[in-house]
Amino acid sequence: MKALLCSALISLVSPVFFVQAIPTPQSSGIKTIARDTATQLRGKRIADVDILVFRFADLLEQLEGAFYTQALAKFQDADYEAAGFSGAPAQQLEIIRGQEASHSAFLESAVESAGECPITCNFNFDAVLENVASVINVARTAEQIGTSAFAGSAHLIMDLSLRTRAVTILSDEARHNSILNLISNTGAPFPTSFDIALNANEALALVGPFIDGPCDAGIPPNPSLAITNEEPVTTGSLVTFSSTAFNSSSENLFCQIISGELLTAVSMPLSECTIPMEGVMGPAYIWVTADPEPLPNDVVARAMVEVVAGPALAFIDK
After folding, report:
1. Cβ 199 vs Cβ 303: under 8 Å
2. What are the domain boundaries of the chain?
3. What pLDDT, in 10s, does the model give residues 201-215?
4. CATH number of 2-210
5. CA geometry: angle at 266 spanning 260 and 267, to 5°?
6. pTM exceeding 0.70
7. Whether 49 contacts 156, CB under 8 Å
8. Which one Pfam family would you cite for this protein (predicted)?
9. Distance CA 108, CA 119 (A)
10. Angle at which helices 48-74 and 89-113 cross, to 10°
């Protein structure tokens, strides 16, 4: 219904305010902000790339909001306490859900102010809502992806006021990430001095398995990569993977591990993909490539590099 209404409204928008459809890029591989804040942009031509970034960011906010809504409907604080989690996790998730809704409302209002429609996506979390430990792990994962995605996309935003607002959302995502690291009982609240930025293709590879049905962000995702280890991955772990991008043979493929403190990836043959004993901590992203050359910890440079699949995300908790 919302999409139909938005389409109808666009037909009434003056051509002066209309922003042309965004071309699909070629790739290989707070408390509530009043909607009036975004309406200040009405009548101002917003760059196509800004619309593209905001739609992508809103997809991530929708995913987080949908996950928290489903998790809160199933588990309460008593369930978390019974499983050994402290700090009123359900209350914290409720606060985070409200802030994600505020982020989404702002992003969608900015898109609509340019005479464009936000995208609306559906998600399926059935496989990860089996118990509270899984809920905390997925929440932690979602907030880390959100932090990395905002960090990797903010530089693309042309409008300086929109870029500033996006950066304030980034800082909020980082706070969510920190509290969930604490609630997990396994991770330091801020384990590294630097976060890892992801480009949109990489972030979409991570959230793609949760998307249920059509959801065209206008950005092609990298092929997804799943870690198949039964036990949590830690230093010294041999990491195994599955992906539709390659078969069971790992010959001539390489794994590339990046954590926040590294300038380039640790690269090694895929069949020997082992978390180093030193230098890798906190969130670590892992790609599969056909080239042993270490990937740069730089979204601009990495966007020009071919990857086979990924990244996948592992938390190396010490």
Report:
1. yes
2. 2-210, 226-316
3. 999 999 999 999 999
4. 1.20.1260.10
5. 145
6. yes
7. yes
8. Ferritin_2
9. 9
10. 150
